[in-house]
Write a structure and sequence with these properties.
Strand content: under 5%
Number of domains: 1
Distance between the termini: 29 Å
Helix content: 55-70%
Number of strands: 0
Structural class: mainly alpha
Radius of gyration: 13 Å
Number of helices: 4
Order of helices and strands: HHHH
Shape: globular
Amino acid sequence: MATSKEDLADIMLFYVEMGVKFTNAYGDIDEAFYCSMESMYEQAIKYICEQGLQEQFISRCAKIVEDTDGIGWGFNDTLYALYNEYLGQYDNGGDKPFELQYVVPMKTSKIRT
């Protein structure tokens, strides 16, 4: 299992990245699948913030949001909102590569209950 805080964050994000890759390859899945991905994404970014690992993982967190564009069940909307809540304003600069900056996170709240 994970032996460092970085390894744990990496495993959590990897889980979501593989879920996104799977749904992009095979099409929409069911709501339970997306809820699971959303829950892990929130746990991951919350953990990343608690451990002060934002600079190390912010690009991967943003890439996940970008890669979910067009996926159903409000998946992208939820990840976008979570990113903004914990990591600051998501902005890929339109046609430009990611230009992200860390902003002090707002107070946390559940997106879905």
